[in-house]
Design a protein that fits this description.
This protein is elongated. By secondary structure, it is an alpha+beta fold. It has two domains: 83 residues, no CATH class; 92 residues, no CATH class. It contains four helices and eight strands; from the N terminus they run βααβββββββαα.
Length: 203
Amino acid sequence: MMLLNPLALGVSTLDASPFPLSLSLVKDHLAEDTSDNDALIETLMRAAILWAEGSMRRTIYARSHAWTLANFPRGAIRLPRGKTQSVESVAYSSGGQTATLTGPSSVPAGTDYQEDFTGDDGGVLMPPRGSGWPSADCDVPAPVTITFTAGWQAEDVPADIIHGLLFAISDGFENRGTADMSAGRNCETREALISPYRLHRWY
């Protein structure tokens, strides 16, 4: 049986404007009434999100991902990084040329594979009923690349994760001058808040 063999995962940077985590909410949490520290707070917001995403092995705020596999598995592919919003395409190398598969959430939509995005622990892709995935070249740098969007929309992020981010930002603000987001008086509280959302798969 051919097992899933990930080679690389690229996650787009969080550069949306406006920033998906509310600055006013963070400043209320920090009891900051002026704009003097806004730039610092925004830096800490980004650091807190990266800390939480790394700890949970999932993407919080929806953005694009590119996942490279060494081959197609036999059967289902469960995507990494948590809640899947859509799969733009599945590209693979065949005979030295790139071929592209599309599914129900692609634009335009296709029928080359099945999708199930109902859970928050990663979408599932399967080949069409009665068939399998195509054969991919194994002697190229990127035999299979799945481009997909993972993470929640800003209004759908669980409240516990938002609270965990606020406590992480508070720790960073209190300990400003250091880039270490793994320490602080709220460390145990924020870890407890995000721990139910931690993915235990290694990819």
